[in-house]
Amino acid sequence: MLRDRLRTLAAIVVLSLSATAPVVAQSTPSPTPSPAPLPQPWEPFFDDTVVHEIRLAINSRDWQSLQVHYLDNTYYPCDFRWRDQVVRNIGIRSRGTGSRSGIKPGLRVDFDRYTTDQKFLGLKSFILRNQSQDASNMHERLSMLLFRRLGLPAPREAHTKLFINNQYEGLYTIVESVDKTFLQETFNENDGYLYKYDYPSDAQPYYFEDRGSNPDSYVPLPYKPETHETDPRPEFIVQLVQAINQTGDAAFRTVMAEYLDLKKFVQHVAVENFVADNDGFLSDYGGMNNYYFYQFQDRKLFTFIAWDKSEAFKSGSEHSIFHNITDGPRANTNRLMTRAISYPDLYNAYLDALIDCARSAAEPAAGVTGGPGWLEREIQQEYEQIRDAALTDPQKTFTNDQFESAVSDLRVFARHRSDFVTAAVAAARR
Amino acid sequence: MIAPLLVVLLASGDTSSGPPNEGVKKCDVLPQSTQSSPRIPGIFFSAVSAVSAVSSFLTGSKAGPEKSALQQDPPPQVQQATAEKKEKKKAKKTAAGTLAPDEISDEVDNPDQAPEAGGPGIGVAWKQHPSIRFGDAFRLDFEAKFQEDAHGSYTGAPGLNCPSQVLPTTCTFQLHRNRVGIQGNFFKKIDYEVERELTEQELSEKDVLLGYTPKSQWKDVNVNVKYMKNAQIQLGKFKVPFGLDQLTGVSHNDFVYRTLGANYIAPGRDIGGMVHGSFFKHGLTYATGVFRHDGDNARSKKVEGGDQTVAARVTFAPFRRVRLPGDIDVGAAFAVSSLSDDPYLPNGLRGRTVLTQDTFFQPVYVKGQRRRWEADVDWTAGPASLRAEYTWVTDGRLRQGLGDEDLPDARARSWYVAGTWILTGEQKTRPLKADGEFLQGGFGAVEVVGRYERLWFDSAGGANVDLPSRTPRAANILPSGDRALSLGVNWALNRWMKLQFNGIREQVEDPSRSPLLGGGAFWSQVVRLQLVL
Predict the structure, then answer these.
(1) pTM value?
(2) Residue B59 shares a structural domain with residue B79
(3) Whether the complex's predicted ipTM surpasses the cut of 0.85
(4) How many domains are contained in chain B?
(5) Cα nearest neighbour of B302 on chain A
(6) CB A116 to CB B512 under 8 A?
(7) Would you report the helix, strand and coil content of chain A in percent, each value rounded to 5?
């Protein structure tokens, strides 16, 4: 009798639990992270565990012309091959600012230049960076990896050997284009207004000072529209600049919140500073440089996207954490950065971001105590990956000794930078 | 026969202000008063003119005076020797006695008719242009042509952007052409001409550094030696003898813009030498010459165009001895140019839309020979005219493939059909000429015009070689073309001033190369004020 009652009770409990289980599952958020996004078709192309091979078939005269007229943005038609995939009738052109070279041209590769909507693995274009300013060939890839490790938007990169008409033309870096595809993947939207900060070599340095309310002073230079080219909306850049320069301290944070996430902004600057980038937002070469600026669709909010870190690491591991922030002439300080870090919480956010960089760079391998940090391991891995291709590069702009030396410098940087930054941040805490 | 009689009855008196019209003597049916159109504007005279012309057509008679010389396009220079001589010879037959400033006068060919200019010494006159003369030894005329436009098209058309603005801003008004020049002769045997454009945009220093070719501001700069009328020699810069529409003078056009074919695949002006003349009382004319390049239409800021060019053109009046309504002239031309691939940029021909200058066909890489052929017909009868022209161009592409292989020829073709009708009843001439000038007792001449045309590009063959592509080295060039319908009204107020209203509907055939998303048709509008002194 008792056994029957117990059975009945057990059955009731089981039924009750099974009936309530879905309700419990629905009402309690899962503690697990959201499912990983589906793999994108272009991911194999940016696989940085291998050195890729890209082959371009081009009229021999066109390749000569591209090298002779490397300062020109003329497109040349060619066929593209990667692994067993061929894309016909694409366009390439010389690209870059300081990195332009007639010997080893940097290239922009456009799949849809001549064939509307033609894509390769979902990509409309990508960049082949020639590393003409970086003897190690790694500055770009290492910097962008750090940006991405810290959750900041930056293009993906991988190394490749480039063959022109089956002749090896050198070691290049594949760089993801900052375009609508990138925006969609990064921000889950792509109909906003994307600008590239374009700093002509003969232009006056610009530090975000107020140039007045005339939109012509901002667009198309220095902010070159990359989307909505025929209908840019420069008025919001004007408003942003005027908010930076004209808003009083009391309203600054409230007004700026409409245009910028200032915490993300100081994080962006912190990563650039950690990698000792001399040619970024706080450039040594005249105000700001090397970033994309994206205005989200239907909002006034902008965000920074990292670009071109060829000049990173060159200042060494003791590069000041306040380089071009407090250690330069006041007239040459960036108006936005100066105002941002005048607020204690943003000042601390900047220092915190530097500490995050230091920790990330020094992060030991899983299950290993001590030993080289992530940055040093990454340098070694990339070095082993590209060494042969770099040494046999027929068009390289540096000697093999310079390559080895530059890699050694990088290792030294990786070993000491985190400690230096951590100490500098500790000293800078108020 | 009733209609012409009706016209006679309705016409309100003799309006001719010049000497007796020679054309009247050749008129079988109509008295002189109907040769010069009545001064009352409006649809009434349009109807009368129409009835007259139709009647003439049906009766086989010449319903008006024989087509004046000005019904031919007065060419900008002597190079179109045939048509020009015809014009000169017939100029005295125009309805209104006074020559328009841009009209070809008789004086050059008919010294006896030259106006008095102060006797054998130095004289100053202003009949067509301000003119200085030293008896028969020397003549110097001053000329000026101004064409100012107000225009519009689809929203944001880049071709209409103001050149001085940093951000895209549409400009409604444009100083389209402002040309000044001199022309004249020595001993009535050596003609000369110099014309310069004042508003052409110069290249920036950066453009020059990038190797762009500056477009010359000098237009016609040449001498014409005419000791032998049938074999005149012209040297200097002038139009390559090719294409009826291209050879029509800039101020004589029935439309605001020349045809796409004339603008982009006919040669235009170049430096060279030419022999030209006429036979059978202008029943057969010819012009043939050698030029340094293949004209400025084939060149642009980025495209160098062809090299040495040989061109020839003939015109003839096949039905001269047959009683047909009006005059019909048939022309044909060919030109051969060598094409180099020395320029690193594609050196082929390009296609752009009429007003908005959107490029619907980018140049392709070429090398070898460029061959042009053209055939045209020009019919004028009373107040009406009809023109049609077909042009065919092929460009060689030796070693222009991605693997340095030869490619099939690139090809460009164009055609147009254009018609005009003068509502106020004047005889069709170019330039359009009013019998009664506006505010001088008349209304001017009002003409309606219409034209349909197509310009398109592809490759001659290549379909079997590869899939069509837009690249400049495609074996099989993906066809791209533009179809344009132009409708308009011309109003010649007086000898100097003309207003033109044109509406242009265009459809770029390849939607992906259309300036409009999705590739729809679009309308452009333009009003031009032309002043010729």
Answers:
(1) 0.77
(2) no
(3) no
(4) 2
(5) A74
(6) yes
(7) 40, 15, 45
